[in-house]
Amino acid sequence: MPELPEVEALRAYLEPRVVGRTVASVRPVAVSVLKTFDPPLEALVGRRFAAVRRWGKFLDLAAEDGPHLVVHLARAGWLRWRDEEQPPARPGRGPLAFRLRLADGAGGFDLTEAGTQKRLAVYCVPDPGQVPGIARLGPEPLADAFDLDTFAGLLRGRRHRVKGVLRDQSVIAGIGNAYSDEILHRARMSPYRLAADLAPGEVERLYEALRGTLAEAVSRASGLAAGELKAEKRGGMRVHGRTGEPCPVCGDTVREVSFADSSLQYCPTCQTGGKPLADRRMSRLLK
To answer: Which residue stretches, if any, does this entry annotate as coiled coil (predicted)?
Structure first.
């Protein structure tokens, strides 16, 4: 799933390509992709894009004096830029879910989604705050205002495992399964710790790991083309997606805990005092 660093890189990639350009056509190819009906998508046609913004894991393409095209790529969605005109899209054929073309041969992009679970979402709204997922977002973790006291306040009193708290978009915007694994490994902390039980020194260590991990990932992704971001994300991971490989810090074997619809990776030596975590398969313990 694209998370804050990849979505921010996509925003930066799209901005010079679409801002000031006029929408020639826009079409949902997959039946399930469009989540709104008023205003209609056709309201974008003939308008120029004024800005490209990011809200957590959401991309927001704002038209001049018009609606916002908001995209959430979900778990298996991606954006592919197309400089040249593509053949007409056929509904139900392949991974293509959505297509937008710009006028005067300026290119455009496709939204694709792999797999059978179709969760990629497109919204056309007057205000991005009308998108439920944006309306409930917590603070941006790389914003200047997101200081240690703010972070400590978000954790205070939460009797939930810290892995789930980091992934909860209503608590902190933009962090998903992959970067929560990386943050916890960097903080040398078990994903099963309860957020409310962390001592002040542990909260500070987790805060520094969060800011450092995300800032470095954003820096690595900066300037990359959309097609290069997935490989960069995988290559930058220390434990996530590396089950069975040696931990780059201590050399212990990276282990995995599987859940109903996801899994986490961790290093026992670095994070759990050398003890493997119980693998409760089919559990819904973590969100």
So the answer is: none
